[in-house]
Design a protein that fits this description.
Arc Repressor Mutant, subunit A, single chain, alpha+beta, Hypothetical protein af1432, 5-stranded antiparallel beta sheet, 16 strands, 4-stranded mixed beta sheet, about 600 residues
């Protein structure tokens, strides 16, 4: 064993096999890929690399594995998966992934499959790069044939639990509470100086156990249970603040949008020259470092792209002249922008169209960046006594934090410093342009792609119309309860042939009922964007008081559903018919409010 001295953990022990892998070109590249991309322009200390983070993830993965009393063979695999989990990350972190989502024609194709996310490239590199190296293949720590060994490591490194005999091995590396998140929250806080959340590693690691083949959070005593939840809640607070303070920092966002526009220009020029853009992009993820990517843009970009890169190199970042968040966007616009931001092509169209409108109106050059938070916790399980449930069902604070992360949206208009006064005075006009443009773009998305989140909203809308009653100036509305029943209902609707594409959710039965990570995320988005209200209710089970959430369509949600329903006339008719036939099996309570309090509030 050798060791690496880490600024956070001290001496990190490295095995002979791990050292062989560290010495490969694939791992060496990560020494010149910054963990936070261009965030060091806002936080000068944030020049730590993906390599440092990979070693840190190895250390935390080892800590978790030993706390769970895993076998030595499992520990070897978990450590390697932690070391290799980011090996497919591109230069400048997530910017290139954004370019791929916005430009499907740039997406590399390997074995007939389009590659978009860095996890796909990681799996490709780990599966194909190491088992053929003689010095690695001959190492005794592999335990089995090199090819099958690294295929298993690739699955673990990317959190793939499907078809794996021990899903908890993948959970250690990639889950809601995992070695990856623990390290990057600690490391990013250390290097940026942003300390807005506590990550108590020992408390979190000590609260993990294996139950039914999966990692769960909990404790053997009542106080241990409380501390397990407290530690996990603190980690969620750190996660929420990570977006607010670092990712959505206007200077970080400005540098990111400058790089993105320059890179898109360079790739478009390369394509126009008849070069293989997809092969070039594959190199970004496999062999390029940050400096290589800047050099590529300076080689193929036009004059404007070269100027953007020159300004990035000199730290002359464009200034945010207007910034809009969930606090100053009305619910309809907020919902529309959230949907647009999650569709790469529409996001690109929105940003370019808005920047063109503003530039023409005010005679200045502007860049627009729309960004939303991602990676909300979806599947953390907790064991309280003999019961197992979801973290957000046991902790009202966790549920609120999930909503807070889901609600984070940042729309920035960037311009030159000397245009600041002119543009800042026009921020109200910006808002009008945003409100007018976003519904049109949603129509554009629907014509090309399905939007399951809108299908989900139509389910609430259909139930609302079916069970709603009005009398004496008061409205009585259904409050759908038992989220597991909502999952089942949406799954059944997705089984209807004519609705299959609209309700494009993938379900699994790991928790004893049909569950979908994406469906949970979409429910939280509807709540965060003000379309659906989430109401907390307590109930007693086996001598313990538990909490559940019930859902009712808000006035804003009703108005938004009425706005989009003409685009879904046929689908809505099928949903109405299905709910009508099955209405007696839909668990619901009712809430009554004054009609004047439930009037539409959407302009």
């Amino acid at each position: 064993m050798s060791s690496i001295i880490d600024p956070i953990y001290g001496h990190v022990r490295i095995s002979g096999l791990e050292q062989l892998i560290i010495n490969t070109p694939q791992m060496a590249r990560l020494r010149r890929v910054q963990q936070l991309g261009l965030a060091d322009l806002a936080f000068p200390g944030a020049n730590h690399t993906r390599f440092e983070h990979s070693v840190g993830t190895l250390f935390i993965a080892d800590k978790i594995a030993r706390a769970l009393a895993l076998s030595e063979e499992e520990i070897v695999k978990v450590r390697l998966a932690g070391l290799l989990h980011d090996i497919g990350h591109c230069a400048f972190s997530h910017v290139v992934e954004s370019v791929l989502k916005r430009n499907p024609g740039f997406q590399p194709v390997l074995n007939g499959k389009k590659f978009i996310r860095h996890e796909m490239f990681t799996r490709h590199v780990v599966s194909n790069s190491f088992h053929t190296r003689p010095e690695i293949a001959a190492n005794a720590e592999l335990f089995e044939k090199p090819e099958s060994f690294f295929l298993e490591i690739a699955k673990m490194a990317t959190g793939d639990q499907n078809g794996v005999p021990k899903p908890y091995l993948a959970q250690i590396i990639s889950d809601d509470i995992d070695a990856d998140r623990i390290d990057f929250l600690l490391r990013d806080s250390y290097h940026t100086g942003v300390e807005l959340g506590l990550v108590d590693v020992d408390q979190i690691v000590g609260s993990l156990s294996i139950n039914n083949g999966r990692i769960v959070l909990g404790g053997s005593l009542s106080y241990d249970e409380d501390m397990a939840l407290t530690a996990a809640e603190s980690m969620l607070i750190a996660r929420a603040h990570h977006y607010s303070a670092i990712i959505h920092n206007p200077k970080t966002q400005g540098a990111r949008v400058m790089l993105l526009h320059a890179l898109e220009n360079a790739l478009s020029n390369l394509e126009a020259a008849g070069k293989d853009v997809r092969a070039q992009v594959l190199d970004f993820f496999i062999s390029y470092n940050d400096g290589d990517l800047l050099n590529f843009i300076e080689t193929y970009g036009n004059k404007d792209a070269k100027k953007l890169i020159m300004n990035i190199r000199s730290g002359a970042i464009c200034t945010a002249t207007a910034r809009f968040t969930a606090r100053n966007l009305n619910p309809r616009t907020r919902m529309a922008l959230s949907t647009i931001a999650r569709n790469g092509v529409a996001k690109k169209t929105f940003e370019y169209e808005l920047s063109k409108r503003l530039g023409k109106k005010y005679g200045v050059s502007v860049l627009v960046d729309l960004d939303v938070a991602g990676g909300i916790p979806k599947s953390t399980r907790v064991k309280i006594g003999d019961d197992e449930g979801f973290f957000y069902d046991e902790s009202a604070l966790a549920n609120g934090l999930v909503r807070a992360i889901s609600r984070q949206i940042s729309l920035c208009v960037f311009g030159r410093p000397d245009d600041n006064k002119l543009l800042s005075q026009a921020s109200h006009d910006f808002l009008l342009d945003i409100e007018n443009l976003s519904p049109r773009l949603l129509h554009f998305i629907r014509s090309d792609d399905n939007l399951p989140i809108e299908g989900l909203l139509l389910v609430f809308y259909s139930a609302h119309r079916m069970f709603r009653k009005e009398a004496d100036g008061r409205i009585t509305m259904p409050r759908l309860r038992n989220i597991a029943k909502i999952y089942r209902l949406v799954g059944e609707l997705g089984g209807i042939e004519r609705l299959r594409n609209l309700f494009d959710y993938k379900f699994h039965d790991r928790y004893g009922f049909p569950y979908s990570d994406r469906l949970f995320e979409d429910i939280q988005l509807l709540v965060a964007m003000g379309m659906v209200d989430e109401d907390l209710r307590y109930f007693e089970k086996n001598g313990r008081w538990k909490q559940r959430y019930e859902y009712v369509l808000t006035s804003n949600g009703l108005g938004y559903a009425e706005m989009i329903s003409p685009a879904y006339q046929n689908e809505l008719k099928i949903i109405d018919e299905y709910l009508s036939v099955n209405k007696h099996s839909i668990p619901r309570d009712y809430v009554t409010v004054a009609e004047r309090r439930y009037k539409k509030q959407i302009r």
